[in-house]
Amino acid sequence: MKMPGINSKNVYAVMNRVENLMQLVKMSLAELTEVLGNSVNAKLLHDFIHSDDQLPQTESASAASVSAAPSKAAKVAGKSKPAVRRKSPRKK
């Protein structure tokens, strides 16, 4: 998982000074600056952690919201649609 502000130069400092994500989330901007060693990276991480944007839905959540009604073709044929057949490469 990638997080803004954490890079190959400071990832080990974070891992050595922070026990878990909850502790990371509770850190102030000043604490993050001390851990990351850079105020720009600390601001990026702080803004990411505390952003008001909603997280995108996961695929399982999206699939649960999709209607379970069968397709029109399935209703007509009485079964689900056949899988699309792909042509195999020609032999020389």
The number of distinct helices, counting runs of at least 4 residues, comes to 6
Q: What is the C-alpha radius of gyration, as a whole number of Å?
A: 24 Å
- Terminal CA distance reads 45 Å
Largest sheet: none
Stretches where pLDDT is under 50 for at least 5 consecutive residues are 60-81
Class based on secondary structure composition and strand pairing: mainly alpha
Share of helical residues: 40-55%
Question: Average pLDDT across residues?
Answer: 75
Structural commentary:
With 92 residues, this protein is mainly α. It has a domain of 39 residues. Helix 3 packs across helix 4. About 24% of the residues have low confidence.
Descriptive tags:
single chain; 92 residues; mainly alpha
Task: Show the helix and strand layout.
Layout: H1 11-17, H2 21-26, H3 29-36, H4 39-49, H5 59-65, H6 72-77
Helix pairs in contact: 3-4
How do you describe this structure in short?
The chain contains six helices and no strands.
